[in-house]
Amino acid sequence: MEAGIVGLPNVGKSTLFNALTQSKQAQSANYPFCTIEPNEGVVPVPDERLARISRYIVPKKLVPTALKLVDIAGIVKGASEGQGLGNKFLSHIREVDAIVQVCRCFDDPDVIHVAGKVDPVSDIETVEIELLLADGQAIDVGLPKAERAAKSGDKEMIARAEVLRKCKAQLAKDEPLRKVEWDKDEKRIITSYGLLSAKPILYVANVDETDLKGEGPLVMAVREFAAKVGAGVVPVCAKLEAEIAELEEADREGMLEASGLTEPALGVLTREAYRTLGLQSYFTAGEKEVRAWTVPVGATAPQAAGVIHTDFEKGFIRAEIYTLADLEQYHSEKEIRAVGKLRVEGKAYIMQDGDICHFLFN
Question: What is the C-alpha end-to-end distance of the chain, expressed in Å?
């Protein structure tokens, strides 16, 4: 799964990306369009449950799940009409599964704001409008084609035309497609057209070091906006996080403590991005490794097994499952089995976040 980091120029996107990926490359110059091709990085999703499992099942290594991040160049007003490098930027957004929008929530006279003033809600609306306009263009092209093809009676094209008409009606209200409850088949069709406003979104409020908890008026304005659209907000001081990322591991704890943080805010961000994507983790645990695996919320046991290997899904027989609470109470799989807490689940079982599993397959 991929999340694209977007925002207006000079809001801190690349600083945040470099901190997330612990990149030590030179920071971009202070002007728009400094990033043309997207940078990509894979970051682990911190999960304290791995360490808790390993207290009782001691492995050779711990393997967290990971999230792929794409740093996409700054969007400006008119991007959908090709302003700046808009078409290229929008095409990069089409390829990701979720959008992480960085909003500038700090004042700094030395950092130019492309709009001339710091107004994070206005920045959010600028990006949203460009996504809506780009979707409108895609539907204006796709709908007539789908309607012509639907006249032949082709069921797939009839379904496509119907979904695109629903999308057009939603966009006519200036509302993003993500606010509609789409069924599985509708989502598949929307994805095939690369419609941008259907993608889940997370707002990152880039704050300064005086507002690390995100309680200032600029962040509160973002929180209020996000609540209306059902999106999450994570306050992050990208500058501070970049400094922390540059430190050796032994020095990070001291800087976190001095800043009043219990962990890098980036841990919170990656977990929230993971949740925004509609993902959850289950675990496998043994002497070789304790490992987190990624599955969509609502995945069945065979689908979860297929994440490990496609043969596991094809030949799925059953899953043996227990919880971390069971492990912490009984201290071993042997004791969990002995007291009857080891559950045997079949093909219809819906995976729960944090399940610890063994899969049996033919």
Answer: 29
